[in-house]
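Checklist before submission:
- one chain only
- standard amino acids only
- sequence pasted in full

Submission:
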Amino acid sequence: MNPLDLAELVALHQRAKGVPPAPLRARALLEGSYLSHFKGRGMEFSETRAYLPGDDTRHMEWRVTARTGKPHVKVFREERERAVLVWADFRRPMHFATRGRFKVGQAALAAALVGWGAALRGDRLGGLIFAEGEHRELRPQRGDRGVLRLIREMVDFPAPGTQTDPSASFTSALLRLRRVALPGSMLFLFSDFRGLSDPDHTHLAQLARHNNLTLFFVYDPLERDLPPPDGRYPVAMGSGAPRFLEVNQPQAREEYAARFQRRLEGLTTLSRSIGALLIPCATDEDAIAVLKRGFGMRP
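Returned file contents:
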């Protein structure tokens, strides 16, 4: 059964109005009180003018200043058309949930909302969808057609293969993203970030240097906390007989919760160190409301 609903993803365009082009915390102060959403190619030189009190001295135009003997600054303007790239993890661990939606379903919902927001602003939307042994690259395209193409590719994406090392596909997908992401792009990564390695940290840091980067971290409540210690829980293991999950040992429960907390803290530390925004989302939460809160909006 496909965990993605085509009609639901298409209908999200009604909830995309007002979604900002970048997380509010990623805005940079460039000219006085002027706020910009962009890095890299997102700002374009416009003109040179005389320095005014309150101008940012980092944008001094020293050649004109030296020639005229009076201080001048460079003035920048926003580029109205950007590339928005969605990076969606469809590996086997994402096809899991004990409550709410599959992790891949939460990722697709949030990705579709980002896509519809890009279309409303006139941005170009592209993407990269990947799983074990499979990936799809979508060149940035403007308008509703780009969003519908992304949705269709997510809905029709083949079931994950039998590759046993999902971390290999994760790293290769980050490398592909680095190759296609032009400076100044808006990058949205939707994943459970399982198998994140030290080289992957480097890839993410490089991506964040010249782009606005958002990490949408999807997890299942069972990954955070074991179920109540009042029973034995059967767990299906492929086609074999189910095994039972023992959850009654207090020490084991504490260690289990601590492992997830260390994982979350590691992602939080990483995102802060590279200047990215981290948005955690459980499978039983409203993914769209979580995404909007992460952007500093009211759901």
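Reviewer check: Residues 39-78 form one domain.
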